[in-house]
Amino acid sequence: MARVFTAVLHKEDDLYVAECPEVGTVSQGYTIEEATLSLSEATALYLEEKPMKMDADVIIPHPLSEAAERLARQLGMSLSDLHTTALTAFIAKYSEDDVTTALNRVYTTKPSSLDPVLMKMQMISLGEETW
């Protein structure tokens, strides 16, 4: 199955700059056709050296995609690098091990028992249960 990649083009002075956000390759040309052909060749060469495993397509809502493109340009990085950096930070923040470690730090200094008043309120709200 052939892969389909995105080409994002913009004009800088006399040149068209083409970027493949999924791979991170960038190329340029004096015409749109020249820039996209050059990008296609650069991307193919890159993938020969560093094959990608692509399990699923990711659909990013248009406003978020535009904001990501602006931020990537502002930071001087490829869109692919921006996505990788953001996803890495998100995974690190919500990693199960990190959450467990943080909870363990809290509960080594604080009691883990329920407040007696809260416990009584919970019991009242549950009512009688027959098992």
Give the helix/strand layout.
Layout: E1 8-12, E2 15-20, E3 25-29, H1 32-49, H2 62-75, H3 79-94, H4 96-109, H5 116-126
Antiparallel strand pairs: 1-2, 2-3
Helix pairs in contact: 2-3
How is this structure best summarized?
With 131 residues, the chain is of the alpha+beta class. The chain is 56% helix and 12% strand.
Structure report:
The chain is of the alpha+beta class. It folds into 2 domains: 1-57, 2-Layer Sandwich (Double Stranded RNA Binding Domain), CATH 3.30.160; 60-125, no CATH class. It has 5 helices and 3 strands; from the N terminus they run βββααααα. The protein has helices spanning 32-49, 62-75, 79-94, 96-109, 116-126; strands spanning 8-12, 15-20, 25-29. The protein has a 3-stranded antiparallel beta sheet with strand order 1-2-3, covered by helices on one side. β1 and β2 form a beta hairpin. α2 (62-75) packs across α3 (79-94). The radius of gyration is 25 Å and the shape is elongated.
